Structure formats: C-alpha cells, structure tokens
Amino acid sequence: MTITMYGADWCGDCRRAKAWFDERRIAFDYVDLVQNPDETERVLERNDGVKKIPVIVFPDDSHLVEPSNDELAAHVLALADVGISLANLGTGTADHDPAVIENPHLRRFELLRHGEVVSFATYTQNEHAIVVPHVETKPEHRGHGFAAELMEGMLAILRSDGRTIKPLCPFAADHIRDNAQHQDLVTG
Fold first, then answer.
1. How many CB atoms lie within 10 A of CB 20?
2. What CATH number matches the domain at 98-185, 3.40.190.10, 3.40.630.30, 3.40.50.970, 3.90.228.20?
3. How does DSSP assign 20-88, residue by residue?
4. Going by C-beta distance under 8 Å and a sequence separation of 6 or more, which residues neighbour residue 160?
5. Domain 4-81 belongs to what architecture?
6. I need a labelling partner for 162 at 20 to 30 A (CA). Which of 101, 127, 147, 153 fits?
7. Strand partners, 65
8. Tens digit of each residue's pLDDT (9 = 90 or more) over 59-103
C-alpha cells in the first residue's frame, strides 16, 4: 500500500503537496513526469484526458488532482475513517513515526498513531491566526510525549501554510515559549 504522486519539479502545487506529505512524515512514491514522460499516460487516464498535476493516487486507488492542503488533510482523514492508516506508510514504524494532520471539519489538529487519534489541539480561526484553546492527549496515551509531538507537527503545518498561532492553552503556550524556534509564529 503506497501513495504515488505524479508531478514535475517546476510545478508549485507539486512542491507544496510534497512538502505537505514530508512535514507529516507520510511516505509516497514520486514520479517526475519530466524524467518519466511515459508515465504521463497514467495522469491522462486519471484526469479524463486533462493535463493537470499533481495527481496523487492513494492506497485505495482513489486520487486527487491539484489538491489544496485542506483537501489533502480531509482525504487522509477520510481514509483513516475507513481503516486505511497513512501513518503506517511513514518512514519507520507507526510507533516511532506518528503523523500530524489538520482536520478542518472538527477544527483541530490530530496526532495519529495506527490510524487512531491519540492527541489533538482544537482551534478557531480569525483573520490573523488560529487560536488554540485546548490541547489534549487521551488518558491511555498520556506520559509518552505525544502532546509535544502534536505541537511540533502542528507548528510545522502552520509555518508551511504561512499561518500564525495564538496559544490560549497553557500547554501550547509553554511549549512555544520553551522552543524559541517557534516564537515567531505567535501573534497577539
């Protein structure tokens, strides 16, 4: 079970999608259509003859064409809901390589392990930033540093999307205060 992305290095949407998967440590096979022009036929088949990239094919044979970051997050979540965990596709094992995704439908960031949400941060959004009032780890998963892993993944997503954060949750505020590399993401 793999994810395959068909794209080209000159394509901004392809670079953004690659970064989205890389930041969440979700492994994928990348097919550069400039270096492998014969693979263009697969793109055309998926797109009903239209030349649009990236085309991302998931383990269930579903695919997305030129997806936004929100569309990628929603699709990964939908796959997890039907038992297809992309966290298991990351480098290493899922126990050592969790995935952080944004779930815009529930307005929260989630740390997934074996497809299960073990930690999450709820948020609201205004014109300036996301506001994080609460970070929680499920009781049976506490004491393993999962909330800190969630924060690191969430902050990487925010940085890549050019967003800022207003951490109302004491844990979130302390994590950012204790990690100077993230302090530029904080807004008042």
1. 22
2. 3.40.630.30
3. HHHHTT---EEEETTT-GGGHHHHHHHTTT---S-EEE-TTS-EEES--HHHHHHHHHHHHHTT--GGG
4. 19, 20, 23
5. 3-Layer(aba) Sandwich (3.40)
6. 147
7. 55
8. 888 899 999 988 998 888 888 766 666 654 443 333 345 678 888
CA–CA gap between residue 19 and residue 137 (Å, rounded): 26
32: its two tokens: 């550069």
Give Rg (Cα) of the chain: 17
- Could you give the angle at the alpha carbon of 141 between the alpha carbons of 138 and 145, nearest 5°? 110
